[in-house]
Amino acid sequence: MASTTLSFRRMGARTLRSIPGVREWLAFSQRHVPVISEEQIAQYHADGYMVFDPMLGDSIVDQAVADILNRPEIKDDLHHGSRVFDGWTFSKAIKEIALNQRVLRLLRQLYYRQPLPFQTLNFPIGTEQKVHSDTIHFQSDPPGYMCGVWTALEDIDMENGPLIYYPGSHKLPLVITEHFAPGPGFEHYPTYEKVIEKLVKDRNLTPKYAVIKKGLCFVWSSNLLHGGSVHRDKGRTRHSQVTHYFFEGCQHYRPMDSYGGYRHLKPPTWIR
Ligand SMILES: O=C(O)CCC(=O)C(=O)O
Ligand SMILES: [Fe+2]
Questions:
Q1: Cα 242 to ligand 2 centroid, rounded to whole Å
Q2: Domain spanning 44-257: which CATH class is it, in words?
């Protein structure tokens, strides 16, 4: 009897949510409802990362994967750098992952500002990307209001190229273009990678790996050192999606293209 009542209630809630505008109103009215504890917030700022369950459901995760499989950038030239840029522009599932209400609530709790998703990248296999901090690509003023939310679209283990990261490294001083290049520009990126490699060695940093289950997110603070570890099992995929977020009330610029007081402002395209 109790379970019949419960399933009627669930059905009623589902029907209500399908009315146009109700879902959005619900999300809006619940935007300040906490999804993590004060201790977890403190832990995130101490470590520079956390694992979070956005409660996505398999169907949306599988749909996001299906939506990128026919893209030419994946079908015609698959390599470790392969990625689909801004899949949210054509995939409802990718956009839903980027705008997931639990993630938005989490980020509001972590930063006390409204999060603004601005970019999605979908990876079919491990990136094997060298260790870096996203602050070389995206920075805010005031600094630090940027983060990455990396969602496992399938189970990740040590064989299919998990994220590598260095706990606590978000507290290291920022590495900016002036430290390693004669001027701004992406052509200096290989030098940046060498600088970071040396930093990791000199500080004797110990890596960890984001071995997480399908549907879970790995959230990193803007200056956390991270990259893609070796994708050992070439027969497997590593479907994943990263969404980058800025926060409201900040100026946004690209450090790699900035230099000597000049800031390369690049207004992001917000995902909405
Ligand atoms: O997925 C990866 O292996 C690395 C992704 C990354 O570093 C990023 O998107 O900022
Ligand atoms: Fe990154």
A1: 9
A2: mainly beta
